[in-house]
Amino acid sequence: KQAEKAVHQKKEQSKTKCRKARRRHINLVAEFNRRQRKNIWLETHIWHAKRFHMVKKWGYCLGDSPTEKSYRACYRAMTKHCLLQDLSYYCCLELTGKENELLKQLARICSIDTGLTFEEACCLSGRFEGSLNLYRADRYPEDMLGPITFIWKPRDGSENRQLWIWMHPALKQDMLRELKAVFQCSEPEEIYIPEPITTTIQEEKQVDVVLSLGKKRKKEDKEGEKAVPVKKIIGDGTRDPFQSYSWISQTTGIVISDRTMEILRYRLIGPLSHSVLTETLKAASLQTV
């Protein structure tokens, strides 16, 4: 009985993968996707997870405080060099339609008494980003929704404009509900349902990893075709995966799209911020067909 028990334990232990197998790219991506089911990771999550205490808020996994004493280094970077912050967890709503119709309806949820509005000339041209407080339609100064920042896409000669509104994830649902009511946007008939995320066990059943000496590993599915690599989760913690991402108004033609986690956002602070951007970003050459 002892001998049979020992053999049985060896069989159970053999099922456990070694660290080299667990650290393979396909296994890592599947494991990361599984861990993002409840809280979405930012693009810089791995970098922050090694250096920060992480907290789970608003459907995201965010870096809260550093694990070492780096406050002086951050302050020195802000005052003399450049400090970068990842604000990709902020939600982005995109409004597309005729400029006159956009300004007409947006004027109902803000007031000139509080400062700048969506009609400000410097912001309307697309050169500068604006910030203001949004209220429920025709309810100023009561029922404030919260602060937002916005930026217009520069004019391209047509009467249709594009507006991006950025807000905190805690305010997104209320503002989205109010914008859909103001522009009279209806729910689409077809709702996009994303493909289910495969776990590590399911990945092993679906993908056959063929090992050969001196050759790279090839991934093949049951039909013998090359399997599609596991994709990273696209979405955000404030959006139901079974809800639509875009709404259109049948009367005005205004389209509201949810661009959260599709447009990344970073904040650079410090006197050398422009120098860093100049060295990092290179202008693309214009090609005319």
From TrEMBL:
Top-rank lineage group of the source organism: Eukaryota
Pfam families, per database record: POP1_N
Sequence ranges assigned to domain Pop1 N-terminal in this UniProt record: 4-97
UniProt source species: Aptenodytes patagonicus
InterPro entries documented for this protein: Pop1, Pop1_N
GO terms for cellular component: nucleolar ribonuclease P complex; ribonuclease MRP complex
Protein name: Ribonucleases P/MRP protein subunit POP1
GO biological process terms, semicolon-separated: tRNA 5'-leader removal
